[in-house]
Each structure stands twice: as C-alpha cells, then as structure tokens.
Design a protein that fits this description.
Chains: A alpha+beta, B alpha/beta, C alpha+beta
Radius of gyration of chain A: 17 Å
Mean pLDDT of chain C: 93
Largest sheet of chain A: 5 strands, antiparallel
CATH superfamily of the largest domain in chain C: PurM-like C-terminal domain
Strand content of chain A: 35-45%
Largest sheet of chain C: 7 strands, mixed
Low-confidence stretches of chain C: none
Order of helices and strands of chain C: HHEEEHEHEEEHEHEHEHEHEEE
Oligomer: heterotrimer
Number of helices of chain C: 9
Mean pLDDT of chain A: 88
Strand content of chain C: 15-25%
Distance between the termini of chain A: 46 Å
Number of strands of chain C: 14
Radius of gyration of chain C: 21 Å
CATH class of the largest domain in chain C: Alpha Beta
Chain lengths: 78, 371, 344
C-alpha cells in the first residue's frame, strides 16, 4: 500500500499521462490526479502520481530537523 | 533536492536517535506503526534495533495483503480456474495462499491465466488490446492504491470497454484504526505512526477523530529513516506532555485536506460496502469499497456472479491479536515453528510486510527457537 | 526442407527433424555450429572430444541457461552460457579450457536468432580463450522450451597450491566485491514488457577468469571465491557463511550499487542484495592482505569498481548481517522464492 517513491516529471504527454524518472529509470505515469509540470517531483505509486512533492516544505522539514538535533549540542555546550 | 538521499542522511539519523533516547522518560512507549510499508522501512533501515529499549514498535494491520480474507483469494482462484478470464494482479498477491492451500501462483502453474501488472492502467491497456478476452483486475490496497483502480475504471468506461472488470478489495484506514483503538485497555497503544501515502490521498484531517475519540496522538510519517524517527520523536513529546493531536511530519507530501481530486474520483466510482470481513480484525462496518452502481458493468463480482467464499483462520493462528497489537510475533506459540514464511498459517506471515514475516526475516535467530 | 538445400539462416526456423540425428541435424551442425565454434577437437566430430590437459587438478562445472528474454541489453543467452560456466570454473581458481554445449531448441525458433546466439557464444569463447569441443542438439515441440535452452559444462585446471573452497572463510577475514551489484538481474527485469520501464541499464555479463588469474598473482591467499548469480550477493554470502560455519557482517554504505539499479529496485520494491550479477565476484581473504588484493583487483579492467564490503565474524547461527551507517543492523536471510515486484 505504501511502496511509493519520488519521481521527476520528464515529459508531459496526452490524456493526462507523463513520462517520469526515478534515478535514471523512466516510466509512463498518470498525472490525472495531480497538478504537476516538467521538473516537478511527484510521489509515484502503481503507475499514477498521488501527490506533488513540495520542495519548500522539504527544505523546511530538513532545516527543522537539523535545528532539533543541533539544539541538543547547544544544550550540552551551554 | 535529493529526495531520497537527504532524508536518509546518516548524521541526521544518528542525531535523531540520540534525541529519541533523551526524550524517553522512565516508562515504556508502545507505538504502533499502522502501515505495512512502515514496518518494512523500520526493518529495512535497521531502525528497530537502533531504537532505545523503552520504545516498543507494535506492527499494525496496514498491510492489505495480510488483511485480505483467504476466501477472497479463493474467489480469484475460482475465477481463473472456472471462467475464461485473464486475471491481472500485483506481484504481492501471487504467492499468498488462500483458504484451500492454493495461491494464484499455483493456479497459474496448473494452466490458469494470471498476469502480473505494475499498474491497473496496464490491465486496461491489456483489455483494449485483447477485445475477445475477459480481463479482470484483482484490486487490493488501502487508499494509496484505490485511486489508481478508480482511474482504471474511469478509463475503461471512457473507452467503452466490454471486457474489463475489477474484483474490488480496497479497504479503508480509519475504520481499521478505530477497530484497533476500540480495544481500549487491552491494546495499550500510546501513539500511532500514521501512513504517509494513504494520508497524502485522504488528508491528515481524516485522523482527527482518532485523536479526539481515543485520546491517541497520531504522527503522519514518510518512509525514509529521518521521517520515521522524526514522527517517533513527535509522538514521544506528545505522550510526555499528555497531548493527543494529529501532527503532520510528512509535510512535503501531505496536506490537511489531501488529494481532493482523488477523493472525488473515488466517490464517483466506488461505494462503501456495508460490512467487510477483515482477516484478523473480523467484520468491520463501512470499511471497504465496492464498485459503484454507475460502474456496475465493470464489477467482476456482478459480471461473473461470484459467490462469497469464507474461510476461517487456522485454529492455532493468533493473527487477530498480533494485528491489534495485543501480542508480539515472537510471543505467538506457532511463530517460526508451525508458522513460517514458507508455510504461513495466518495473515501476518503471508506478506513480507506482515508483522510476523518481518520479524521472522529480519530479527529471528534460529537459536532462539531451540532455547 | 529437402536434402541438398542449404539452411535458410535468414528466414528459416528450427524444425523437429533437426534434433533427430539425421540429415537435418547434420546440416545444422555443418552450416551453423561448426563454422562458429571452429576448432580441431570439434571438427573431428567424435561422440566425445579428446583434448590435451596441462598439469594440475581438474575442475568441472556445469550450468543450464534458460534466461528470458533471450536477447537483453548487454548480452544474450549465448554469451551468458559461456561466461557463466567459465566463471564457475574460475571461481575454483582454475583456468578454464574447454566447454561442451548442449542445446534444447523449440520447434519454430528462428534460425536467424539461433545464429545470433551461436555467434555470440563463439565470440565469448574467443574472448575467454576457451573452445567448445563437443555438444548436442535436441528439438522439442512448440511450447516445450522457451526458444532455446543451453547447458554448458566446462573443464579447467587448477594449480596444486591453490586451495579455494566455500568452507575456508575464518573470523577476521574480509569480503570484497569486484564491482557494482545487481546489474544483470535489474537489466533483464527491466526488459519485461509488463513493467513498462525504460532504462539504459545493461547486463554485466563478462568472463572473470582473467581477473581471478590476476588476483592469484597478487600473492594474497584467496580463501573463497563466488560469483553472485541467481539470488545475488545475499545468497552467495549466506552459502559461504553456512559452508564455513561463520557469520558475515556487511557494511551497507560500502556496497557499490549503481544509480539505475537503485532506481529499478526502488520502483519495484526489490533489494539489490538479492538481484543477480553475471560479471562480478565475491572474494574472501585474510585481513592483512585485503588492501593489496583490492589494489590488484582495481588495476584490472574487470575489477575497477572493487570494494571491501564486509568482514567474517564468529557466529554459531551462521547469519549474514547488514550494518546500517547509524549503528543498527538487520539479518539478510536466505531467499525464499523468487523476489517479485511489489506494491506494499
């Protein structure tokens, strides 16, 4: 139910389909349920995109995680 | 942005493990990762072993292969055996034994036409290319997978196909979560790791009733190591503070409302079954999809007059308790003895995401059994 | 097809008479196999081949090849059948010398495809410095085989002083792989039409006896050699651990996996450790020789991507364990059945 991975949109095709790429491997996928452009990343599951990945949110999460773990070190050196 | 690598960063993982350790107070934390994909990820990334002793991961029922009743597999096998169909299925279902000891794999070996597909859309393409054959798609999965089936049904209708049907076994997450939480004292789960990709579809708001009705914190997690650890940390903080909220720890993929286009399409092509028998969890109301009346021409159960086949679990099987988080795999009397991945007695051992299969493969040392 | 007509290698097909041992068989031999596998022993066309053998101990290995599709990016069943058996012989530390090749052909199999396979075998033999000295052909009815099945048996000679065997691994030894893993299995799987994948991945099929010869010359003691074919690195190392009565600890970060192999595996939910290689080897050697052996392998064209991936440890359960970069670990069990693409 959850084997779904980030895939880059390479080419938009007809009828809601697109060519997407995962680490250099390409496959056709349906974008019918997601708004996405070339070079966007989507979550690919059984041949369809179920959501678009938000890069700003990803950066925000990473920097929050880094701050959370960084906070530990600050406490230790205080 | 390296979507996979960044969220597998070694230093972040090590630091998060340290933070989790610091957050543990003098008590045990029983956290259920609902989703089979999360069970798989916890083992694949060697996180179970790396977590502190105080944190116990309880493997939930979110494995659609595991909770599919054996009788439903028998129904698919009967279709292959007795009707002239080409059955399309995901790889996961091929080796799962039904109630009579056979699987789709053995049905294929004895001449049945069973084809593995990666996507339900491929099954529609197949039907289009073979207009004189009846193509049936064996649909399984939670809400992550149901939208793909929905797209397939919609496309089949748009193409006016007369030879494509779906054998629909899609099941729903929140009713199953309620069934777990309903056990109250016995389950004794302190928090839930929510299935990230299901939630990408249904939206994190869908879990609000779990937090309010059962006072259980739910942290929605992605599938990379940092995602899981961040969600665990979120749960520990809430539990320590006596809170019970839904928190979205997979913000890059999940929103509060989810994928509304997908929801709308599913509402159109599916209807709720009044009741569905889940392996291990028993009969749950409004917990599964069937094909909607408007799409009746694409419903395999109607086209082929499929009779409901039921099959009781093996007498020695304790999956019901394992799926509800009341028992750990290693505490089941038949774990790794009569019940193994090669010879599974129950749901939890049949799929590699099943709690027992995962424990057997990644943790179990043969010597432990002899001791 | 009548007597006196040459084989139509462009448009003709295998017919049932070609396996019967009569004129049709003879024609197939004379016009297809002999010109390709040209060598003195084969030309004599005896029931068996008499061949000279250098001094040493005889090594024999055999392998059946049933791969589908027959032609895949980077190779075909012909090249595979030569490399596979050459490598099996080489894994014993032996120099491969002669092969036998037996073909089971499906009625209707295009002769043009058969010629392509046979030419590929001839080229592979030439590259590996071995000859196919004897063989056999049978034809089965349509549906009885998947185009063509090839079984090759190989013989070679190993020096008296070389003692490579699966039960020789000892705690403290190190494990080396000769290059990135999983390429053959991923390339072949990616060709399955129902998966709809587009990739530039090619099989890594190649002969390894030259690399083994170079490794023997390094002077480092080779305890075990194995080529991780069916079942991948995980299966090969589990077998060695069991045979030697030891455990093996793998360092996840050190295991070389190419980007596209990773892509195919992530997409289909497969673990690269279980995906077949056809041009890689695993070596186990004592710790004090491992750096020298590594440099020696990297200097050889077939070992450029060699890497130290783990170590042999005491373990009465004889398990293969994978250690994550963050300190956790998990067991890498023996395969139970063919890994299938999954959605969960």
């Amino acid at each position: 139910m959850c084997l779904a991975i980030p895939a880059r949109v390479v080419e938009i095709r007809d009828e809601g389909m697109a060519l997407v790429e995962v680490e250099g491997v390409r496959r056709e996928a349906s974008l019918a349920l997601v708004e996405a452009d070339v070079d966007d990343y989507v979550i690919l599951h059984v041949g369809i995109a179920i959501t678009r990945l938000d890069e700003a949110e990803a950066e925000r999460t990473l920097s929050m995680l880094r701050k959370v773990v960084g906070g530990d070190e600050k406490e230790n050196t205080a | 942005m390296k979507w996979m690598d960044e969220f597998r960063d070694r230093d972040l993982v090590v630091s998060l493990l340290g933070r989790i350790d610091t957050a543990c107070m003098d008590r045990r934390y029983r956290l259920m990762e609902f989703c089979g994909g999360h069970t798989h990820a916890l083992y694949r990334y060697s996180l179970i072993e790396a977590l502190p002793e105080a944190v116990e991961m309880v493997h939930g029922p979110g494995c659609p292969v595991c909770v599919l009743p054996a009788g439903r597999i028998d129904m698919a096998i009967d279709l292959v055996r007795h009707r002239d169909v080409v059955l399309c299925t995901y790889g996961d279902m091929l080796r799962v034994p039904g109630g009579r000891g056979e699987s789709l794999f053995s049905a294929r070996a004895s001449g049945g036409e069973v084809r593995m597909v990666y996507s339900p859309l491929d099954a529609v393409d197949m039907a289009e290319r073979m207009p004189d054959r009846q193509v049936v798609f064996f649909a399984v999965g939670f809400e992550t997978t149901a939208p793909a089936t929905a797209l397939a049904l919609d496309r089949a209708r748009a193409l006016g196909l007369r030879n494509f049907t779906v054998f629909c076994n899609h099941v729903l997450t929140v009713p199953a979560m309620r069934a777990i939480a309903d056990d109250g004292e016995e389950a004794a789960i302190d928090g839930i790791i929510g299935p990230g990709h299901v939630t990408a579809v249904i939206g994190s708001e869908a879990f609000a009733p779990i937090a309010t009705d059962y006072r259980l914190p739910v942290a929605i997690a992605g599938f990379e190591p940092t995602d899981l650890l961040a969600a665990i940390l979120v749960l520990l903080h809430q539990i320590n503070a006596g809170e019970a909220r839904i928190e979205n720890a997979y913000a890059r993929a999940v929103t509060a409302k989810g994928n509304e286009q997908a929801a709308a399409l599913m509402n159109k092509v599916f209807a709720l079954r009044q009741c569905f028998a889940w392996r291990g969890l028993g009969e749950l109301e409004a917990s599964a999809f069937k094909v909607a009346d408007e799409y009746a021409g694409f419903d395999a159960e109607q086209r082929f007059g499929m009779d409901d086949l039921e099959h009781a679990d093996h007498r020695a099987c304790r999956c019901a308790e394992v799926l509800r988080g009341q028992m750990q795999p290693r505490d089941c009397p038949v774990f790794a003895t009569a019940c193994t991945p090669e010879h599974p007695l129950g749901a939890c051992m049949v799929s590699s995401e099943g709690a027992c299969a995962a424990a057997f493969r990644y943790e179990h040392r043969p010597a432990e059994v002899e001791a | 097809m009548g007597v006196g007509l040459a084989l139509d290698l462009r448009h003709g097909c295998v017919d049932i008479n070609m396996g019967a041992g009569g004129l049709a068989s003879e024609r197939l031999l004379q016009e297809l196999f002999l010109p390709a596998f040209d060598n003195v022993a084969l030309q004599s066309l005896g029931d068996g081949a008499v061949v000279p053998m250098p001094p040493g101990r005889l090594v024999v290995a055999t392998d059946a090849h049933v791969v589908s599709p027959i032609f895949f990016p980077g190779g075909d069943i012909g090249g595979l059948s030569v490399h596979g058996t050459v490598n099996d012989v080489a894994m014993m530390g032996a120099r491969p010398l002669y092969l036998s090749a037996s073909f089971i052909l499906e009625e209707g199999f295009p002769l043009a495809d058969l010629k392509r396979v046979v030419d590929s075998m001839a080229a592979a033999c030439h590259e590996a410095g071995v000859s196919i000295v004897t063989g056999d052909t049978k034809v089965v009815e349509k549906g009885g085989a998947d185009g063509v099945f090839i079984t090759t048996t190989g013989v070679g000679m190993v020096e008296e002083s070389v003692g490579i065997a699966p039960d020789r691994a000892r705690p403290g030894d190190r494990v080396i792989v000769s290059g990135p893993i999983g390429e053959h299995g991923a390339a072949v799987l990616a060709q399955r039409r129902e998966l709809g994948l587009e990739t530039a991945l090619t099989s890594d099929t190649q002969p390894l006896h030259g690399l083994v010869a170079a490794m023997l010359e390094s002077g480092v003691e080779l305890r075990c050699l194995r080529d991780p074919t069916r079942g991948g690195v995980a299966s090969a190392l589990n077998e060695l651990a069991r045979a030697s009565g030891v455990g093996i600890a793998l360092d996840e970060e050190s295991i070389p996996v190419g980007g596209e192999v990773r892509g195919v595996c992530e997409l289909l939910g497969l673990d690269p450790l279980y995906v077949a290689c056809e041009g890689r080897l695993l070596a186990i050697c004592p710790a004090d020789g491992v750096e020298r052996l590594l440099q020696n392998m990297r200097a050889h064209p077939k070992g450029e991507g060699a890497a130290i991936i783990g170590e042999v440890v005491e373990d009465r359960d004889r398990l293969l364990v994978l250690h994550a970069p963050w300190g956790g670990s998990r067991i890498v069990p023996m395969l139970t059945g063919e890994p299938l693409p999954r959605i969960c």
